[in-house]
Amino acid sequence: MKIARIVGSTISTIKNRRIMNTKLLICRETDAFGKKELGTSYVAIDLVDAGIGDLVLTCHGSAARQTPVTKETPTDAVIMAVLDHLEVDGEITFRN
Amino acid sequence: MKIARIVGSTISTIKNRRIMNTKLLICRETDAFGKKELGTSYVAIDLVDAGIGDLVLTCHGSAARQTPVTKETPTDAVIMAVLDHLEVDGEITFRN
Amino acid sequence: MKIARIVGSTISTIKNRRIMNTKLLICRETDAFGKKELGTSYVAIDLVDAGIGDLVLTCHGSAARQTPVTKETPTDAVIMAVLDHLEVDGEITFRN
Amino acid sequence: MKIARIVGSTISTIKNRRIMNTKLLICRETDAFGKKELGTSYVAIDLVDAGIGDLVLTCHGSAARQTPVTKETPTDAVIMAVLDHLEVDGEITFRN
Amino acid sequence: MKIARIVGSTISTIKNRRIMNTKLLICRETDAFGKKELGTSYVAIDLVDAGIGDLVLTCHGSAARQTPVTKETPTDAVIMAVLDHLEVDGEITFRN
To answer: What is the ipTM for the molecules in this complex?
Structure first.
């Protein structure tokens, strides 16, 4: 799973009908501390009612379809947790 | 999913027969804003009748076979949405 | 599989219910010698009761769901072994 | 899918018996134009009787096993089309 | 599939029981010529009784579980062939 910050949203009227009612958010991977945003951005389906600015966990690949919402849909990334707290190298580096 | 711009098309007469009638387009990943094209290019099967220049979402891996067109075909990338609108860091960065 | 050091932990109250009772640890990939930590960090579900500082093996993708704990969960990385000993280029480079 | 040029071949007498009768070719990814060879090389099973020097499409991951030849084999990359023609940014950049 | 050289071995007493009796070797990817070792190292389950120093092919992802030994195990990489001979750009670049 990747630690990422939600930075934006997408709208598309023409899309595969199996993902018609999903919320597609733009995520930017962060470092282990939840601080520095790294270069990579990607779009994930939101499963946990996350909002812009939230620090989240995303999972990728076939893992993204192991939920009732995404089963058998063309989905390769989902937001599956909102992070409250990160502790790295003995220090609390993020608290919501 | 990746945000990408469609930059080209491919023709091949010799190909695996399961993908015989598919449209194979060349995509170039963009940044989260849908503006700057990044280095990576790849080929994806078009599911949404997209055209050259369109900004799209592509999904990858086994996700690409979760549709009637691509089921049980040797496909690892599909175009599954045409983007109308991107909003990043509170600004509209792309509008179709 | 990747060689990684466990560097931290995560807490999240809002998460997909299928992973409710799992321990999500932050891993940092190391080189083959188990010494130098590389740039990449990721979060994995712990299957072997590993602790902070342990050198472990993680596996990724659908492999991560080949266990009773993670079956049919949105999981793309698990810690599946604690390393005791690494031998590289004829030298023991790590011993627990 | 990736655009790649076939640059070589491999021989191995000791191999998993499920891939005993396959042709394993060395591929080097190219840019979108089919011109510049990029750094990455990999080995793929040939499904379309391709030859050294051909520009091809390869697919990766579980997609590679969606054919009678590779089904249930330890294969993660196949050559599934020989490219005749690439058009990028409005120009024909490759013609066989 | 990747071309890699086996550079080391791992021992771990605490590991997922499904991989209890497997041999876990450390592999370092090489270039197409089988000569220069690249940066990336990873651990793979040995299926072909390979030894330290051998040049091998490894396959990744769900492909790694398409064998009796690795079926339904948390495995994402296997060594599935020992290379005898590589020919690249018309020259034999490796012979065992």
So the answer is: 0.94
